[in-house]
Amino acid sequence: MSLITVTQKAKTLTGFDAELVIKSTAFPIRVSDPFRENPRQEKSLEWYFETWITFPVTDTVRAETAKKSVREYGEKLFEQVFGDRKAYSAYEAVSAQLSQLKIEIIGDPEFQSLHWESLWEPEQPNPLAVNCKMSRRRLTGDLSRVQVQESPILNLLVVTARPREERDVGYRTISRLLVEAIANAHLRVNVEMVRPGTYEAFAKHLEGKQGFYHIVHFDLHGGLMRYEQFQQYAHPQAGNYTFQRGYGLANIPSYEGAKAFLFFEGEESGQAVPVSAQEMSDRLKLSGIPVCVLNACQSGKQIQLDNGS
């Protein structure tokens, strides 16, 4: 497996200074949002990746337009990363078999907010993420305090939340495929589900099971929000959800920049319980869970945990 890493080094007025590493050779690069000068195109991409996929049978004309812009965005981003002649030559040397290539993006949430999965080599029919492996990682992480019990099988906890209930994505859209894949591959995995999809049910499920679960899989909605945006959801007319807090979750104080949240189910349909990345990190550390997998809206914007999971 060949590895390419793109690591954030510093922020600039328009984007980021970063380092591209291919087979131990480093290349300084500068990247920025390819649609920075056209916010409407960026909004169209966000809608396509995060909203339209929920109900992909409506707004098909708008979706087709957004789909075409994915390639434009991806090719521009590819040029920023591999535009240097020597860098592209090094890329060619490891990309002959894309199935044996892994691209790792390392940086903070703002760096991760770029649509890296759209990275598209010109003349290719698909973005790189279709054929190669692509992962994201925070700049720092600390798993030293997480201790997992020894076990002959892998213990997996699946958490599914649908705040809008029947008006939301189907509950089994992800979990059914996951369970079937494990069964068909005859893997030694113990799968447990949290019911209902509330934060309280999740927290109570973990009580007395310190170090038992190796992985938690979150199939939830999520969001990367500034504090002003977070406050807007306190009112029903402001968005799809009404936020509420509870079960040991303190009120969210004012904060700078953007924070990532996962949305658990609330007491009523349309209510969501937002849990910040830091709160979730603390909960997983407390329960000794070293790894999490996210299926969440805006997860491409680094809705990940501060403990590096």
What is the N-to-C order of secondary-structure elements (H for helix, E for strand)?
EEEHHHEHHEEHEHEEHEEEHE
Measure the end-to-end span.
Answer: 22 Å
Helix count from the secondary structure assignment: 9
Identify the strand order in the major beta sheet. Answer: 3-2-1-4-5
Mean pLDDT: 83
Morphology: globular
Portion of residues in beta strands equals 25-35%
Q: C-alpha Rg, in Å?
A: 20 Å
- Runs with pLDDT <50, length 5+? 300-309
Relative helix content: 25-40%
Sheet with most strands: 5 strands, mixed
Number of strands: 13
Q: Determine the structural class based on helices, strands and strand pairing.
A: alpha/beta
Describe the structure.
The structure is a single chain. This protein is an alpha/beta fold and 309 residues long. The longest helix has 23 residues. The strands form 3 sheets. A 5-stranded mixed sheet has the order 3-2-1-4-5. A 4-stranded parallel sheet has the order 7-6-8-13. Strands 9-11-12-10 form a 4-stranded mixed sheet. Helix 1 crosses helix 2. 29% of the residues lie in helices and 26% in strands.
Write a concise keyword list for the protein shown above.
five-stranded mixed β-sheet, globular, 9 helices, four-stranded parallel β-sheet, 309 residues, disordered C terminus, 29% helix, alpha/beta
